[in-house]
Amino acid sequence: MRRKKWLTGLLVVLGICMATAVAIYLYARQQVNLAGMLGDAAIANIIVPEGFAVQVFADELAGPRFMAVGPDGVLYVADRGNDRIVALPDADGDGQADEIRVLADGLNNPHNLVYHEGAWYVAVTEGVVRLIDTDGDGVAEARTTLIDSYTPPGQHSSRTIAFLPDGRLLLSAGSTCNVCEETDPRRAAITSYDSPVGQDQLTGEQVFASGLRNAVGLAVHPETGQLWVTNNGRDLLGDDLPPETIYQVDEGTNYGWPSCHSGTVVDPEFGFEGACASVGQPAITIQAHSAPLGLAFYTGDSFPADYHGDLFIALHGSWNRSVPTGYKVVRAPMTNGAPAGPVEDFATGWLNSDGNADGRPVDVVVGSDGALYVSDDKAGFIYRIYAQP
Description:
The chain is mostly beta strands. The protein has a single domain (45-387), classed as Neuraminidase (6 Propeller). The chain contains 1 helix and 28 strands. It is globular, with a radius of gyration of 22 Å. It starts with a helix and ends with a strand. The relative contact order is 0.13. The model is unreliable at 1-41 (pLDDT under 50).
């Protein structure tokens, strides 16, 4: 009898523990102020301005990188650690993805994606793949490799694509090293190609802009059509050199690397007198080693009016600085397509006071609902930042 009572009591205790664990997990999905609830995939203690709130939109991803909103209004993500592109629909509008639906898998380190004239274009390590959902079932049945000739990854393996208003495709590839002379003119540069629509391969290859050590994020201004990029500066010049940079990129311009950094810093190894005399200058500079990645102009209608048109930038965070920096999303106020004030913090908290980070922001995208979505490739989350009514 005593043994039966003991077993019954043990089962009750286990049941209570399991119910509590489930309740905590469900609560943690809604409350981003609970860190460490999911082991290594820690929910960051994100702080946003008054009038805004944050929630976890999706989890259980592996190294999610860049995102894009499809013609169906759904958020699509390059789930790089799983070698796939996924859709994250939110049909009931509760601010959380209903499911993770696979558009295409078996891709090699997909980094970013753009929907253009009926097809998805995906940047992979070797180049560009086009995906088409031919029957509308949410799965891409048609797959075409448009280019696969990019050299081995070297130090920077990510590729990023964008489309110009004239239909040309841009492809960015970072340098193979920290600082060196490249043999492939497409490295540490942005290359342009003729419109790929209806073509089986990319043609018309031209260097669009050079001297960009690692232009990870590309964004075309929705009104001016001007290309904007984030650029990661070289390492091992101390904590504060060179500043990270955001450029308005002009076709045919050289931005200095490896001889000049950030428009003014002459490289101690590859520099020379006058190295910075004729290079393109940054539109915005940010603390060195912050690692700016994704960037997006706010085009939604749910944020307050003074945010409209502003530039949001995801800072992935430092690895070689004595005091860590970055690990946040910043806002650059804009007026008529030009910077109108200093960069300011918008979403912080991924970096803890002890110098350890719960996550690393990668990309920022304005959703069809007007919220700002942030991917985190360390924790595997997509966060949703929205204005409270």
